[in-house]
Specification:
CATH topology of the largest domain: Rossmann fold
Strand content: 15-25%
Oligomer: single chain
CATH superfamily of the largest domain: Formyl transferase, N-terminal domain
CATH architecture of the largest domain: 3-Layer(aba) Sandwich
Structural class: alpha/beta
Length: 241
């Protein structure tokens, strides 16, 4: 008789539409807890009879699984949570060590640094853990933020699909330390550019670049102030026919 292989249970830390997509890809038999701040994700998990921790995980009283996996979870995990796991991974929309921190897709375009997706172990340093796998996504200077976002998102999905099965199978994923260097940017830095107060000091070329890279459906773009009025600057393709 063939011996049945026992699958690992995983705690999934999920937010955003990618978190919801990931939840839809997995069997409830492989999940110990869903940890999220997203009501739709929480409701979807509860409808599938999966245990849910909603809100700040640091205030929750629960028995974690041996493995955790974070997909766009919005809270920074503290050492008290990280240390509970034998292994805990993060799926990041940047080509580490470039793009640590907030909105790596924008910073790749703005600074012309590598873009992509990375699966890495979570450590105390933000986006500094050893790399399991990553995919570089090429781009041109003439793309919008939305253009690059879509290809990075697909790279993230591919990494999740490839490695989640290995994780629940109990495989020990090999990893390598991140190379030296790279970049880090905070939300404050991003908002300083998005809500540009000194836009007159920028060249026309850089204003167009900034407008292009902030072009993203359903989100506001570059915001500037002229006299006492606030304006949003958008880049929209028009037909020449």
């Amino acid at each position: 008789m063939q011996e049945r292989v026992q699958k690992n249970l995983v705690d999934l830390y999920l937010d955003s539409d990618l978190g919801l997509w990931a939840l839809e890809q997995v069997s409830e038999s492989h999940i110990s807890h869903i940890i999220t701040g997203d009501k739709l994700i929480a409701d979807t998990a509860r409808n599938r009879h999966i245990k849910v921790i909603e809100g700040d995980v640091h205030a929750a009283n629960f028995e974690p699984s041996s493995t955790g996996f974070s997909i766009h979870y919005k809270r920074i995990l503290k050492p008290t949570i990280i240390s509970k796991y034998q292994n805990i991974y993060n799926l990041h929309p940047g080509y580490l060590p470039w793009g640590r921190g907030y909105y790596p897709i924008f910073w790749a375009l703005w600074e012309q640094t590598p873009a992509g997706a990375t699966l890495h172990k979570i450590t105390e340093g933000i986006d500094q853990g050893p790399i399991v796998a990553q995919t570089q996504v090429e781009y041109t200077a003439y793309e919008t933020g939305w253009d690059l976002f879509q290809r990075v998102r697909q790279a993230e999905k591919n990494l999740f699909t490839r490695y989640f099965e290995k994780i629940i199978a109990g495989e020990e994923l090999s990893c390598i330390p991140q190379p030296a260097g790279g970049t880090y940017h905070s939300r404050k830095e991003f908002l300083a550019l998005k809500n540009l107060s000194d836009w007159k000091s920028f060249s026309a070329d850089n204003l167009i670049r900034l407008t292009r890279y902030l072009t993203f459906p359903d989100y506001s773009g570059l915001e500037i102030k002229i006299a006492d009025e606030h304006f949003e600057v958008l880049l929209r393709e028009i037909s020449t026919h």
